[in-house]
Amino acid sequence: MNKFEVKAFGTLAADAPLNEINIERREVLAKDIEIEIMYCGVCHSDLHTARNDWGGTVYPAIPGHEIIGKVTKVGNEVTKVKVGDIAGVGCLVDSCGTCESCKHDLEQYCLNGWTGTYNGKDKHLGTQTFGGYSQKIVVDEHFILKVPSNLNLAAVAPLLCAGITTWSPLRHWGVGKGSKVAVVGLGGLGHMAIKLAKGLGAEVTLFSRTPNKTKDALELGADAVVISTDADHMKSVTGKFDLIIDTVPYIHDINPYIATLGVSGTIVIVGYLGGLEPFLNTVPLILGRKSVAGSLIGGIAETQEMLDFCGEHNIVSEIEIIKIQDINIAYERMLKSDVRYRFVIDMTSLK
Ligand code: NAP
Ligand code: ZN
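Above: the input record for the complex with NAP. Below: its predicted structure, written as C-alpha cells.
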C-alpha cells in the first residue's frame, strides 16, 4: 500500500500533553477521497480518548472527528465529489456495508464493527485510525458528507458529531411541532440539541447545574432553563417531558430527570458510558411506562439529512476558533465546562 506522511497533533500517553507527531495516510484508492483539513471541532470524546477515560486507547492517539476540508485528490471511481469541493468527515470512516445495520443506513451500529475516525482499526494500514487534528485525511467516499454552501465552514464542523449525535435521537423518537424536549448539560452536544429541537418545532428546556448559562441558553432558543441542583426547581417540571437528551460526560444521578418525564417519556443517554450510580429506580419507569435509552452518533444518510436541514434552517454551532497549539488549554477549559459552545481548530495553524 502506498503511503505518505502528514503532520498531526496528538498524544503518546494518557497523561502526556498533545504535541506535533507525524503520521501516515494511504494514497487514495479507487473510491477514496483525500481532504486537506481546514477546520476540526473539539469533542469531549477527543478528550476521553486522549486521556484513556474509556480504556482501549492506542497511542499515539490523534483525535478529531468534526472535519471540514477541501478535496485535494480523488480515486478514479469516485462520483460523490471532485477536486476543489468542500467535504465533511464525521465520526465514522468505515463499516462492513453488508450487515443488517449497514443495509439500513445505520453504519454506526455495524454488526461487524464500525471504524471510528480515530482510535478505530484501520482496515487498510493495520494501525489505529488517526483523526482530524492533522493536515490531511483519506476516506472512502461513502463516508464523506456534502456541506451546504450557505453556512460558515468553521461553524459547520461541530455538526458532524455534536449535531448528528443529538439529531439522531430527536428523529428516532419523532420530535416535531409541540414535542416537549429537555436537554441535560449545555456544552457542545447540548447547545446543538437545543438548536435542532427548536428547528424541528419542539418546546425546549435546558437542565444546567448553575444559572451561569441561562442567558446563553435562552439566546440559543431554549424556552426555559431549570437548575438541576435546585430540588424545588426540578419539582416544578415533574411529569413534563416527552424526550430528554442527557449529554453529561461523567457519572451522575439520572433518577431526578426520570421524574420530569411524562407518561411514555424517554431519557436518551448520549454522554456518559458505563454503569450508573446511584442505582436506577425502576418504580417510576414501570408506573409511567418510561424508557431509559442510549444513542450513538448517526449513520451517513442521517448525517447528510441533518446537514441539509441545517442548510435550510441556517443552523450552525456557536464556536471559538483556536490554534492547534492551544489544544491542551482547550481540554483544560472543557473539563471546567468553560466552552461556549464548541472549540474549532483552524488547521492552517499546523502548517
Ligand atoms: P462538553 O462540551 O464538555 O459538555 C458537557 C456538558 O455537561 C457541560 O457543559 C456541562 O453542562 C455538563 N456537565 C459536565 N460535567 C458534568 C457533571 N459532572 N455533572 C453534570 N453535568 C456535567 O461535552 P460534549 O462534547 O457535549 O460531549 C458530551 C458527552 O457526550 C461526552 O461524554 C462525549 O464523549 C459524549 N459523546 C457521545 C456521542 C454519542 O454518539 N453518544 C457523540 C459525541 C459525544 P452545564 O454546565 O450546563 O451543567
Ligand atoms: Zn464527538
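Notes for the reader.
Residues 3-161+298-350 form a domain with the Quinone Oxidoreductase; Chain A, domain 1 fold (CATH 3.90.180.10).
The CA atoms of residues 280 and 322 lie 40 Å apart.
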